[in-house]
Amino acid sequence: MPELPEVEHLRRSLLPGVIGSTVVAVEVARRDVLRGPYVDARATVRPSALLHGCPITALERHGKELAIVAEKAVLCIHLGMSGQLVLEDPSRPILPPTHRHVTWSFRDRLDRLVFRDPRRFGGLTPLPSREQLAGRWADRGVDALLARPAELVAALRARSGGIKSLLLNQSVIAGVGNIYADESLFSARIHPLTPTRALPPDRLANLVRALRTILRRAIGLGGSSVRDYRDACGATGGFQATHTVYGRGGAPCRACRSPLATGTVAGRTTVWCAACQPIPRADSAADS
DNA sequence: CGGTACGCCTGAAGGC
DNA sequence: TGCCTTCAGGCGTACC
């Protein structure tokens, strides 16, 4: 599932293709992928709101959201679970022909930018300006990589609740999803149900350090491709091969060889090592 | 405030 | 082989 590393790698892989390019045609096959306060009930949108006409000047990211910035328009893109954004030559398609919701064509370029999303949990949110984008992102949690580590620790300390639940909460820290929550909790040897308030500052600092190390490493490997994730060129990531717990329930812990536990935490499938990540309190044990 | 459940949606995977 | 069920999950929303 596209989380921060996947979106960041996608952003970097899109940069050379789209910066300075001007959209000359936008084809919207499914209007219901258009979202937000500037899209009316019929999802009728001016082409300029979908970047038509002005050269693209920047690609930015906050958490799991990517923004394509042009002079008079900003388009926020959320990939949801299965979203893909690929630059491809129409004569040599990379993506399957189904679920192609929006296609952008450029001046002086043969390749097109395609937004494809089979499950449609993703969507596009047009905004009129950079100021609106700044406001939108200011209302979110701090970005897990762009903010300073001390800000992340402070954000976690400001809330109560189980630690995994907070890591997944995009209004606390933006960018962490199920994969990197489980991976960073294992790395920091913290049980996912641990009440955040029970963690001393140095353990939270450890967790934040582990999280950022894992996010950076994942970006370097092109992200995790569990099923649908592709970068702008259609390439899959390589980080999934290094997952320590995610998707490995029942398999031996890479540290102590005991079988990894599986359960539901914060409504998500969660994998942890009962030996390496001890249960915080004597009672509240999740099933193994 | 925090927790939980649900709906959205498709395709992979498992059972029979 | 083929049909049916279950599951995965980000996120908004409703509700306790």
What does this molecule look like?
The structure is a single chain. The chain has 288 residues and is an alpha+beta fold. It is 24% helix and 21% strand. The protein contains six helices and twelve strands. The chain has helices at residues 4-18, 130-138, 149-157, 163-168, 178-187, 201-220; strands at residues 23-28, 56-62, 65-70, 74-78, 84-88, 100-106, 112-116, 123-127, 142-143, 173-174, 261-265, 268-272. The strands form four sheets. It has a four-stranded antiparallel sheet, with helices on one face. A four-stranded antiparallel sheet has the order 2-3-4-8, sandwiched between helices. Helix 1 packs parallel to helix 6 (201-220) and helix 5 packs across helix 6 (201-220). The two termini are 24 Å apart. Residues 282-288 have low confidence and may be disordered.
Count of helical stretches:
6
SSE order in H/E notation?
HEEEEEEEEHEHHEHHEE
Average per-residue pLDDT, rounded, comes to 91
Number of strands: 12
Distance between the termini: 24 Å
- What does the largest sheet look like? 4 strands, antiparallel
Can you give the helix content as a percent range? 10-25%
Query: What gyration radius follows from the Cα positions, in whole Å?
Result: 20 Å
- Ranges with pLDDT <50 over ≥5 residues? 282-288
Q: Structural class, please?
A: alpha+beta
Percentage of β-strand residues: 15-25%
What gross morphology would you assign? Answer: globular
Describe the strand arrangement of the main beta sheet, using strand numbers: 1-6-7-5
